[in-house]
Design goal:
- The structure is a single chain.
- It contains 15 helices and 15 strands.
- By secondary structure, it is of the alpha/beta class.
- The protein has three domains: 299 residues, Rossmann fold (3-Layer(aba) Sandwich); 95 residues, Four Helix Bundle (Hemerythrin (Met), subunit A) (Up-down Bundle); 51 residues, no CATH class.
- Helix 4 crosses helix 7 and helix 6 packs across helix 7.
- The longest helix is centred in the last third of the chain and has 25 residues.
Length: 466
């Protein structure tokens, strides 16, 4: 089955076909680094991490770019409040971003370009837009002339008249039209600034992504993506300036994920109703946060609650326990080929999961297939005899889909920890055999402090992590 994705530009599900066979050029708008990211921001990065993984699973060579906005009004204001510099603040929150996303299992992009490192490329584009009449300079500011672009509004599906009626009217505005937007901003006293043909200043927000996506991926991308809040004005303005600059389509497919809501409101820093990833991962298993962000279809809103995270932790524990029990059983089974019926069942589960992902990247439904796998694994484990090949097939399946693709199931083995735990369990068994129950209890307490829970089964004692 072919992959189909919902294209915001056409408002239709379309069969995915990249410009170049076997290769995908993908750009995802990254954070403005003036604060810690919240769980709403993280939905973008977690979901499109899965999209990238799935495209790679499908055999595509993916070039994945995600930028950092490291200069804008918010950064300048925050740096002034904290009596630091914009570069120092940006670097602090870039590192914090990586720490948070590493914890959530988000793989780093091939390149993470920063706006301040691409001023020359932005100025090149602005000069071209001025030359072709798409931009104009006023007192050191440069604006994009939206009325020059006949199809402006095509991504957000709004006409110029609708956009003008909804635009904020500014006092003493130097712009020709209320919906013209800044490409270059004249520096105010004391602000960070760069030399330019229009005097000292800094770039507007939108031009950075046009310049960086073009530099690293070319004039036309296969996928441009981000949160729904970027559809207008950011992505709309990117389209306008990029297509006027290059005279080519900016992207074939535009993908946008829905909001994370806190109660009935969209979570946002401006509303002050945020839950930062940094705080949440101190209290919850980071994989549970990742699971939560994938637990609804990406285009739908999702409501955050602490109760939902706690329920998800229980679901993850079920998956992890199945993995641990399979590994434990492997130590006491005889060699043998995988059961053909089990292999057939695993193939069917893989096909089900792929079918869900092929239909507009439905990771939420794909997760449900992981739980079907756990049910199959538990059924196999309940059998008195089972072959090594069967257990290995079950583990290989969950590694491919649960770990490598969705990034949810912990299939990595800590050999040193496993060896230490097994040695303590063996010592406890010997203590019990000698009726040294005090020593046995001490070992159990020691294991609990290590986050290890013991369970007595017909096949012997097995253990799992909390």
């Amino acid at each position: 089955m072919s992959l189909r994705v919902y294209n915001t530009l056409t408002r239709e599900l379309e069969t995915f076909q990249p410009l170049e066979d076997g290769k995908v050029r993908m750009y995802v708008c990254g954070p403005t680094v003036y604060n810690y990211i919240h769980i709403g921001n993280a939905r973008v990065f977690v979901f499109f991490d899965v999209v990238r993984r799935y495209l790679q699973y499908k055999g595509f060579d993916v070039s994945y770019i995600q930028n950092f906005t490291d200069v804008d009004d918010k950064l300048i204001k925050r740096a002034q409040e904290e009596n630091t510099t914009v570069p120092e603040m940006a670097e602090r929150y870039i590192q914090a971003y990586f720490e948070d996303m590493d914890a959530l299992g988000v793989k780093r992009a091939d390149i993470h370009p920063q706006a301040t490192e691409h001023i020359a490329e932005m100025q090149e584009g602005i000069l071209r837009l001025i030359e072709t009449g798409y931009a104009y300079e006023v007192d050191g500011d440069v604006y994009y002339r939206t009325r020059q672009k006949d199809d402006y509004g095509k991504l957000s599906h709004q006409s110029l008249e609708e956009l003008k009626s909804g635009a904020r009217v500014e006092v003493n505005d130097k712009k020709e039209s209320s919906i013209d937007f800044a490409l270059w901003k004249r520096a105010k006293p004391g602000e960070i600034a760069w030399d330019s043909p229009w005097g000292k200043g800094r770039p507007g927000w939108h031009i950075e992504c046009s310049a960086m996506s073009r530099k690293y991926l070319g004039d036309t991308l296969d996928i441009h993506a981000g949160g729904m809040d970027l559809c207008f004005p950011h992505h709309e303005n990117e389209i306008a300036q990029s297509e006027a600059w290059t005279e080519k389509p900016l992207a074939r497919y535009w993908l946008h994920n829905g909001y994370v809501n806190m109660g009935n409101e969209k979570m946002s820093k401006s509303l002050g109703n945020i839950a930062t990833v940094r705080d949440l991962r101190q209290n919850y298993e980071p994989r549970a946060l990742r699971y939560f962000l994938l637990s609804a279809h990406y285009r739908n809103p999702i409501a955050f609650s602490h109760e939902s995270i706690r329920q998800i932790e229980s679901g993850l524990e079920r998956l992890d326990t199945a993995v641990v029990n399979l590994r434990h059983r492997l130590k006491s089974v005889l060699d043998g080929e995988a059961d053909p019926e089990v292999k057939k069942g695993l193939t069917a589960l893989g096909q089900q999961l792929e079918a869900q992902m092929d239909e507009d990247l439905n990771a939420a439904n794909a997760i449900s297939v992981l739980h079907d796998w756990a049910g199959l694994a538990n059924d196999i484990l309940s059998r008195p005899t089972v072959s090594r090949g069967t257990l290995q097939a079950l583990l290989e399946w969950v590694k491919e889909y649960g770990s490598d693709l969705l990034g949810l199931v912990n299939t990595a083995q800590d050999e040193d920890l496993d060896t230490a735990v097994e040695a303590l369990i063996e010592e406890r068994q010997q203590a019990r055999a000698k009726r040294d129950f005090q020593r046995a209890d001490t070992i159990r307490d020691q294991l609990q402090e290590m986050g290890i829970i013991l369970e007595d089964t017909p096949q012997g004692v097995r253990w799992r992590r909390k």
